[in-house]
Amino acid sequence: MAVVELDHVGKRDGIGAPILSDVSLRLEEGAFYFLTGVSGAGKTTMLRLITLAERVSHGTLKVFGADAAALDRDAQAALRRRIGIVFQGPWLIDELSVHDNVALPLRIAGAEEREIRDNVGELLAWVGMAGRAASRTATLSGGERQRVAIARAIVHRPALLIADDPTGNGGDETAVLLVHIFEQINRLGTTVLIATDDGQFARRFEHQRFHLDHGMLSDAGAALVQ
Amino acid sequence: MIADRPAAMRPEIALGRDQFGRFIRWVVALLVFIAGLGGMGLVELHHRLRASEHALAAATLQVPADVSDARLATVMALLRQTPGVQSVHLVDPAETARLLEPWLGPAVPLDELPVPRLIDLRIDPDGGTDMAALRRQLATVAPNSRLDDHLPWPQGMRAAARRVESILAASTAAALVLIAVSVAFSVRANLVADRSVAQLLHLLGAGDGDIARWFAIRSLRVGLEGGVIGAIAAFVAILALSGAGSLVQLPAPGVSHGVADWRVWAVLGGTVAVAGLIAMASARGAVRRWLARMS
């Protein structure tokens, strides 16, 4: 079954050239993908469509089998709770502790405090931040913030995990750690999509790749699928 | 694991600490202080005005003891015909004796004393009774009679007090409107900073209603806290201004009811509630509008 399905999707913002044109692809359940392309190729826009942060201009987008255009706002929110996102900037709430930042997706989903404590503690240990649970995120280094963001993206065991340009923040070491963590999550059945403008980086891993060029899925990229 | 029910989390867990909350709290405190002072001043003035009108409304006519019953009847008729006089009551001798007893003792035979006849009058303060003219007429019908209207409160003074009352009411109302406007603006300014948090929660799958509710609860709390601070300050200020004596006095006729007056509490409580509700509604509205703009 396809977790995400784009069928001739276009996205246009204003009167300029379209950001995405005629993109068709399927993200299969349990698979691991890279989305490559230079900065401005439309990667972030595509991720925003998939996470229901924006609407498609043309074509059809299905997320978890549901037509995105037909969902009301509450249904959209419910689907978003099944997706984990590592944003381009870590995007943490600096007034909250590391623990409370990571706990957000669980709290939004209405989980019990006990369950939250156990899961967050486990996750922070996994990303090597166990000792910093009570710290304010404002006091963390760039790499540490990125690791908190990773923990927040996976704490609620999402069915789909998305990372937008993780190589752009926190350095190569953090990016490799992120991919390894995502590979472990992937083995538990979660579909993973990582966007990066570093094609070299993506080629270091044995995963399927989509390549975006000027808002279009390039054939060359499709051919890289292994 | 993933529940569909709305998240029942506390606002500070969802939004973090409120950076601008302290500022808004003091803005609200100051405005509630002003509105509270005006409101309590209004209650106090209104009360005193009422008391003085009450005093003005009662008058007593003393008619010499030797006046004939026929004359007494004429006096009664005259009083009844006087514009503004609402009721006329001839106090009977037994009642007069009861009134005099504390001074004269029970043993004094009143029949043998020239005790004047008393007539109680109730006068409508707005009835336009011309007391001077009434006195002149009484002098011809019952010479040596005496009319006591207790408090010759000049009509001009009364009108002035009424104007001050209106001014106080207007400025209290203006302070309340100002609370609405400035709380709305402060909350709006605060929310610009919080917008990124609202967007993040939206992308993490929080529903519009939940996000708006968290912001609304936090603003309500800030508005109420500021309101309570301002109300306490206003109360203390009134206490200091009017001298502890008059405000803590127990209710007694003709004296300000002070803290025992429910209207003082109504004014302060109402102002605090208004401040809180405006803060809440303003935050909720702003968050709802942004979320609607997000896809």
Proportion of strand residues of chain A = 15-25%
| Strand runs of chain A, count | 10
Assign a percent range to the helix content of chain A: 25-40%
C-alpha Rg of chain B (nearest Å):
31 Å
> Structural class of chain B, please?
alpha+beta
Q: Between the first and last Cα atoms of chain B, what is the distance in angstroms? A: 26 Å
The termini of chain A sit apart by 19 Å
- Globally, the shape of chain A reads globular
Form type of chain B = rod-shaped
Count of helix runs of chain B: 8
Pick out the low-confidence regions of chain B: 1-6, 247-257
List the strand order in the largest sheet of chain B. 2-3-1-4
Tell me the β content of chain B.
Answer: 5-15%
Largest sheet descriptor of chain A = 6 strands, mixed
SSE string of chain B: HHEHEHEHEHHH
Q: What does the secondary structure layout of this molecule look like, with pairings?
A:
The complex is a heterodimer of chains A (226) and B (295).
Chain A lengths: L1 E10 L8 E9 L3 E5 L6 H8 L7 E6 L2 E2 L5 H8 L2 E4 L11 H11 L4 H14 L15 H13 L5 E5 L6 H17 L3 E6 L2 H5 L4 E6 L2 E2 L1 H5 L3
Parallel strand pairs in A: 3-8, 3-9, 6-7, 7-8
Antiparallel strand pairs in A: 1-2, 1-4, 4-5, 9-10
Helix pairs in contact in A: 3-4, 3-5, 4-5, 5-6
Chain B lengths: L10 H5 L5 H37 E6 L5 H13 L3 E7 L1 H12 L12 E7 L7 H11 L4 E3 L6 H49 L4 H41 L13 H32 L2
Would you give an account of this structure?
The complex is a heterodimer of chains A (226) and B (295). Chain A is built from eight helices and ten strands. With 226 residues, chain A is an alpha/beta fold. In chain A, the strands form two sheets. Chain A has a six-stranded mixed beta sheet with strand order 6-7-8-3-9-10, sandwiched between helices. In chain A, a hairpin with a 2-residue loop joins strand 4 and strand 5 (66-67). The longest helix of chain A has 17 residues, at 171-187. The model of chain B is unreliable at 1-6 and 247-257 (pLDDT under 50). Chain B is built from eight helices and four strands, in the order ααβαβαβαβααα. Chain B is an alpha+beta fold. Chain B has helices at 11-15, 21-57, 69-81, 93-104, 131-141, 155-203, 208-248, 262-293; strands at 58-63, 85-91, 117-123, 146-148. Chain B has a four-stranded antiparallel beta sheet. The longest helix of chain B is centred in the middle third of the chain and has 49 residues, at 155-203. Helices cover 68% and strands 8% of the residues of chain B. Chain B folds into two domains: 11-52 and 156-293, no CATH class; 65-144, no CATH class. The interface between A and B is medium-sized, with 32 and 29 residues.
